[in-house]
């Protein structure tokens, strides 16, 4: 395992673990609220932030975080105030954000930007500064989630009941929207714009197959997310594959294996 002696690979592993921790932690609540499409929508909107950063000669990662947070609040405002169905709002916002991003990218080609890393992730190019920023963002995400864990759980189960019980639903939702947006911004660094939704949702689906309690699902989802990141990164290195797609495909393979194993087990028990 000589690769563990390389700084770039150690940074990639650290960033992968952080992303694999944060994405399922937030994803559990998104899936419970039937709002998992939010991560995918925000990730696609992030392409607009990347293009704006290139055009304005500002760090694309910084601009992306700002754009994603603004988009997340816009989606939540439309859902709450305009009474649109969440899936319709997300589909519309994602299409608009992606379309604007493509137009801006076409205008930014004169800047000689390679968008592959933004589209599919670039774990192996994580710098020490990037790692410090990711660590701070993930620490903030984890702190907010654990502080409001019980509130988020109740809201995820029944938002109307949470309001009737006197919980500060609007404030908690706003905090969670910020956390979800920052998580998407961090995940883009790992698996890219096109695959971020998968890193948020797949570990949760894996956990839901083997757990019945909510706490157990959270713990298992985090374990699955970090395992996907580390396993996919090593597979990508040894097979010379892009890290982001390798991470996601590993997760899909694990999910498919678990579901298939459960079906075989049920069939054998019936016979």
Automatic annotation (TrEMBL):
<protein>
    <submittedName>
        <fullName>Zinc transport system permease protein</fullName>
    </submittedName>
</protein>
<keyword id="KW-1133">Transmembrane helix</keyword>
<feature type="transmembrane region" description="Helical">
    <location>
        <begin position="90"/>
        <end position="111"/>
    </location>
</feature>
<dbReference type="InterPro" id="IPR037294">
    <property type="entry name" value="ABC_BtuC-like"/>
</dbReference>
<feature type="transmembrane region" description="Helical">
    <location>
        <begin position="188"/>
        <end position="207"/>
    </location>
</feature>
<dbReference type="GO" id="GO:0043190">
    <property type="term" value="C:ATP-binding cassette (ABC) transporter complex"/>
</dbReference>
<dbReference type="InterPro" id="IPR001626">
    <property type="entry name" value="ABC_TroCD"/>
</dbReference>
<dbReference type="Pfam" id="PF00950">
    <property type="entry name" value="ABC-3"/>
</dbReference>
<keyword id="KW-0812">Transmembrane</keyword>
<feature type="transmembrane region" description="Helical">
    <location>
        <begin position="161"/>
        <end position="182"/>
    </location>
</feature>
<dbReference type="GO" id="GO:0055085">
    <property type="term" value="P:transmembrane transport"/>
</dbReference>
<dbReference type="GO" id="GO:0010043">
    <property type="term" value="P:response to zinc ion"/>
</dbReference>
<comment type="similarity">
    <text>Belongs to the ABC-3 integral membrane protein family.</text>
</comment>
<feature type="transmembrane region" description="Helical">
    <location>
        <begin position="6"/>
        <end position="30"/>
    </location>
</feature>
<feature type="transmembrane region" description="Helical">
    <location>
        <begin position="214"/>
        <end position="239"/>
    </location>
</feature>
<feature type="transmembrane region" description="Helical">
    <location>
        <begin position="245"/>
        <end position="265"/>
    </location>
</feature>
<keyword id="KW-0813">Transport</keyword>
<keyword id="KW-0472">Membrane</keyword>
<feature type="transmembrane region" description="Helical">
    <location>
        <begin position="131"/>
        <end position="149"/>
    </location>
</feature>
